[in-house]
Amino acid sequence: RAQARQGPSPIAVPPLATACPTMAPGRVAEVRECVASPEPLGREAPSNAAPPVGSARNINMQAALAEGLAMALFVIVGCGTACGHGASDGETRLVVAFAFGMGILVLAYTIGHISGGQINCAVTFSLVLGGHLPWYQGIVNTLSQLVGSMLGALVVAALFPCERDLTGNLASQVINEDFGVGRAFIGEVIGTFLLCMVVWETAVSPRSQAGSNACVAIGFAVFLAHLVLLPIDGCSINPTRSFGSAIVAN
Question: What are the CA-CA distances from residue 203 to residues 29, 85, 152, 172, 241 (Å)?
């Protein structure tokens, strides 16, 4: 009341009366503190926001473990299909491409609510660069994917002995000499870009209308990339997937 007699207050007190529970008549300092607050009360900061300076970095180990498990299953499904059917002609390549695409589609739906369903260090890296995933979580996710890839390749090796493996190398990447390293590199860059673009525009962008169906688009992006690249280099577009097969095969 004393402030009202002296003139208008520099702080809009009436609108803040319901928004700021700490405000009481005469407690101007607390009102100013509420006005300076960057977030409305009751609203939590986004989980992917960078932590304040000096605060502890919380790593989501559940998400990392989900990425490793999904990668192991992805290698078993995709590389196991390639080892069992081969990829030497159009018919078998179609089968292998469909297995890899469907593998990503199913697993992304399965762990999407836990880790986002990256299952690819290239996708993880793009999310880190875009600020959608903290760098330390990206590193842990990638390490878990690498371990999962090797475990999955070990299972494939146990299922398909050398004489039964129609690829001869647990579906590792081998560049076709008719195409050469340069064409294989360009193809992998384009295929990886296709996948990451689909991920960002369907699953990350706030303007996307895909919703939960983003996993379908991502799975078919993997399928299309394999159709193009299987005869060139066996199609990777996923360094963590290729890592396990290459290590175990050698």
Answer: 43, 32, 26, 29, 21
